[in-house]
Every structure is written in structure tokens, then in C-alpha cells.
Amino acid sequence: MKVLVTGAGGFIGSRLVKKLIVEGHEVFGTIHESPSQVEGMQIINADLTNDEFDIPDVKFDVVFHLAAATPLVKDKKKQKRINFDGTVNLFNKIKDKTDFIIYASGLGVFGNPNGIVDEQSNIKPDTDFVKIRLDAQKFLEESCKENNIGFSVCYFGDVYGDGSWFTEMVVKKLKSGMMKVPGKGDYDKCFIHVDDAIGILTTIAKDNLRNQYYVCADSMSVTFKDFVDYTADKIDAKHPGGVPMFLAKGVLGGDLVKLLTTPMKISNQKVSAIYNFIYPSYKDGIDAILNK
Description:
single chain; about 290 residues; alpha/beta; Rossmann fold; UDP-galactose 4-epimerase, domain 1; 7-stranded parallel sheet; two-stranded parallel sheet; 10 helices; 13 strands; about 40% helix; about 20% strand
């Protein structure tokens, strides 16, 4: 396949690019602020918020749209420029160069749900960050339909792995004794190892699974505190205490804390029908990272 990956310098994007290259695909990747460490990728230097960037005159079998600001970006105008305006600019550059786009989103689109979330659950985001991301998704949905382009979405749980927030905000802070969990940490969360995230993305592309929506996380929900405590036990660190919500919001921002502390349980039955998880539980994934 000829593939375009936006956000190719990011945590998920760089690993997706590497997997695709190993499998023998021809990979192009947009890079803005993050330098690429992946050999074999054809680099497109592009700031998606500026519509003056160029995309090579190539017919892509699939475009993975991963480039996005995270909730750590507190400036709502900047979030909109990157997550919505950047998506519009990208589509205008690629609409005649592909017939399949895969969009990476998150479970935050379901807001604060009652019961188990699956692909039929109501979309009701309750943070500005997710509302902007959902507006970008809706734009792509409508534009792809108008242009006869296939469009599929992955709603990922919290993606973790070596070198991610898991390393920087959990492992390192546990080792230093500086780790704190927002509130009591007693909210259920859904996690997915980055290897499984990219496995799902590549499966959707290779199997040509168009116009589909997948809720993507492993099979075992866990409270955030239990997730962190399990990690602490693996590295012989103390279990962390909690920090009041208002203090956590002051440091991390309201949207990020709300996304982190909103309880979430999911059914991954649909995605499990197309993909066999390498790490079916958070324990498997954490063990694989820390046992390296």
C-alpha cells in the first residue's frame, strides 16, 4: 500500500509508520514540530494549520489522520486551529489523492455515559477539547460522503506504552515519589497498549474496513488508582496518594482532568471480531513494558 500518516512524529504515529515500513508499505508522513526517528519514511514537512503545505502527487490507498493537539494544550483557539482547521486544510489537499481515510479519536466523545459503551452509544461530549475533535470528525464524515471517500473511526481508550505519558507521568514520578492521582483515583478507565492501537489501525486499512466505527480498548476496565498501584508494585515503588481535584485542574487543566476522571467501561466485542489483542489486559501491557 501507499500510505499517508499525519502526526508521524508523535507517539502513536511514529510507531504506526515503523510497523507499516517493516511490512513493506510505501509510507509518507507529515512532520511539524517532532523530528522523525523512523528510517524509510518519506517526510512531508507540514504545519496543517497553514494551508500552504504541499502533499506529493501520489494516490494513497489510505490516509491515517492522527495529527492532533492533546488536552494538555489549554488554549482553545490553538486547539481549534490544530484539530479542526488543520483537518479541513488536510482534507482539501488529499480529497483527490485517496479514497479511504481513517480517523483516530477517543472515548471522550461519549461524555459521562451510563452503563457499558459500545458503537451504538450516544455521542455526547462534555469538554471543549472533545467537541472540537468531534466537529473535525463530522466535517470529515460529511466531506468523505460527498466525495465518495471511505471513512472509518477508532475511538481509543487511554493509549499507553514505553515513551508515552505512562513513562513520563506514571513510572518516572512513581520512582521519584512525586506521583499523585486526581481525587481518589476510584474511577474506572479503559486502556489500550500502543501496539494494539496500531494493530487495529493497520487491520482496518489492510482489510479495507470502510465506513466503520470501532470502540478500541482492552478487555479489562480498571480504576486509575489500581492501574497506577499495579505499576508501582512492579517497580517496587510506594502507592501514590491523591490530590484534590481543584489542584489537579490548576496543573493539568479542566478538560484533561475531566477526561481522566470520568468513569468509562466499554465493550470491545466489535473490534475483537477483526483483531486479536496482543495485550488483552492492562497487566499484560504493563508487564511487557517494565520487563524489557
